[in-house]
Design goal:
By secondary structure, the chain is mainly beta. The chain has a domain at about 1-115: lipopolysaccharide transport protein A fold, CATH 2.60.450. The chain is about 10% helix and about 50% strand. It has one helix spanning about 1-15; strands spanning about 40, 45, 50-60, 65-75, 85-95, 100-110, 115-125, 130-140, 145-150, 155-160. A hairpin with a 3-residue loop joins strand 3 and strand 4.
């Protein structure tokens, strides 16, 4: 049970890092601020030999600032099973923040050490009314920089609205 608590603590570290998935810099909320993270799923499997924890079935991970949902979430650890190296979300991936930013994709991989997130498959990210989409969106969290790529069948699309002036109707 103590080891499971350690693994859950490591997953909390990953979830704080995924705050940037909504194309924003990481939030100060999370385990460091004492805010809890809750992960619910239909099933959890942990393998020390494979150094991973897999949540499946209606997976929902919540912090005070972020909600991540997916059909499946996989957490990959270092050799000591103490540090999460990467997290992969698969199937109907949705991320939303309390400030209203959100993103969706078929798959997402968060590389913890590089502070990089790759959204693949029908990837879209919203900030207010603005939206960008493509085959792949890479978010460089430390740099607050995004790269959107198309592929042979899907081009990059961005819809950017001008800022409204006070009293101006849309």
């Amino acid at each position: 049970m103590v080891r499971l608590a350690g693994w859950v603590g490591c997953t909390l570290l990953v979830l704080c890092g995924t705050v940037g998935l909504a194309a924003q810099p990481p939030s100060s909320q999370g385990p460091e601020s004492g805010e809890p993270t809750t992960v619910t799923a239909d099933h959890l499997e942990v393998s020390r030999k494979e150094r991973r924890a897999i949540y499946t079935g209606n997976v929902v991970a919540k912090t005070a600032d972020l909600t991540v949902t997916a059909d499946r979430m996989e957490f990959y650890f270092d050799e000591g099973m103490e540090v999460v190296e990467r997290m992969r979300a698969i199937g109907h991936v949705r991320l939303s923040r309390s400030d209203g930013t959100k993103s969706v994709s078929d798959r997402a991989i968060y590389y913890v050490l590089q502070e990089k997130v790759v959204l693949e498959g029908n990837a879209k990210a919203w900030r207010q009314e603005n939206v960008v989409s493509g085959a792949r969106i890479t978010l460089f969290l430390k740099e607050d920089r995004q790269v959107v790529e198309g592929d042979g069948s899907e081009r990059v699309t961005a819809v950017i609205y001008p800022k409204r002036r006070p009293g101006q109707a849309r």
